[in-house]
Amino acid sequence: MVKIGALVSGGGTNLQAILDAIDKGGINAEVRAVVSSKEGAYALERAKAKGIENTVIRKKDFENAGDYEKALAKYFKDRDIDLIVLAGFMVILGPDFINEFENRIINIHPALIPSFCGEGYYGLHVHEAALKAGVKVTGATVHFVTAECDAGPIILQKAVDVMDDDTPETLQRRVMEQAEWVIYPEAVKLFAEGRLEITDGIVKRR
């Protein structure tokens, strides 16, 4: 069974989607630990409701980013975590953490990468940019995490239509419901089954 560690900062709706999918069966994985970047994140309540070990590790409590990332890595390594899922984690991770879990960290982004991604594109900002650009289709992308923000190998994508009367808030909700909550658990399932292979920066399913 694949042991999952989650990094969160907010409500944890994508974490809940993964937990629900695991409960339904068919995914050979278990969320063993949830770490928040700040106190009061509702995602921690979701973890507590499931009896999952959880804690807060704040970047500001460390002298530098490297020490912070080493502390995160130690926490997960001490618990033999196989896969790290970023579920609304609002801290950019650097090489000190990423190298410890190479090709074992995944993230979901609320757009069809390479559109509307990279530095500054998070939360409602992504959907605001999509609406400003006038795109007719957006969506979500699950990808492996690398040192370059939102640039890791793409695992899954799902498209979502943009409506003429959309606001950033309504578009965000549709993308979550129709794409994020669907493909994130599916990506976890594929990883747990050992069906993801990266060749020349491209993910292929075995």
Binned strand content: 25-35%
Kindly report the average pLDDT value.
97
User: Order of strands side by side in the largest beta sheet?
Assistant: 3-2-1-4-5-6-7
So how many helices?
A: 6
The tally of strands reads 9
Succession of helices and strands: EHEHEHEHEHEEHEE
Largest sheet: 7 strands, mixed
* End-to-end CA span: 19 Å
Query: Ranges with pLDDT <50 over ≥5 residues?
Result: none
Alpha-carbon Rg, integer: 16 Å
SS content category: alpha/beta
| Global outline | globular
Query: Percent helix among the residues?
Result: 25-40%
Write the topology of this structure:
Blueprint: E1 2-8, H1 13-24, E2 29-36, H2 42-49, E3 53-56, H3 65-77, E4 83-87, H4 95-98, E5 105-109, H5 124-133, E6 137-144, E7 154-161, H6 168-192, E8 196-199, E9 202-205
Parallel strand pairs: 1-2, 1-4, 2-3, 4-5
Antiparallel strand pairs: 5-6, 6-7, 8-9
Helix pairs in contact: 1-6, 5-6
Which properties best describe this structure?
206 residues, 7-stranded mixed sheet, two-stranded antiparallel ribbon, 35% helix
Report a brief summary of the structure.
This protein is of the alpha/beta class and 206 residues long. It has 6 helices and 9 strands; from the N terminus they run E-H-E-H-E-H-E-H-E-H-E-E-H-E-E.
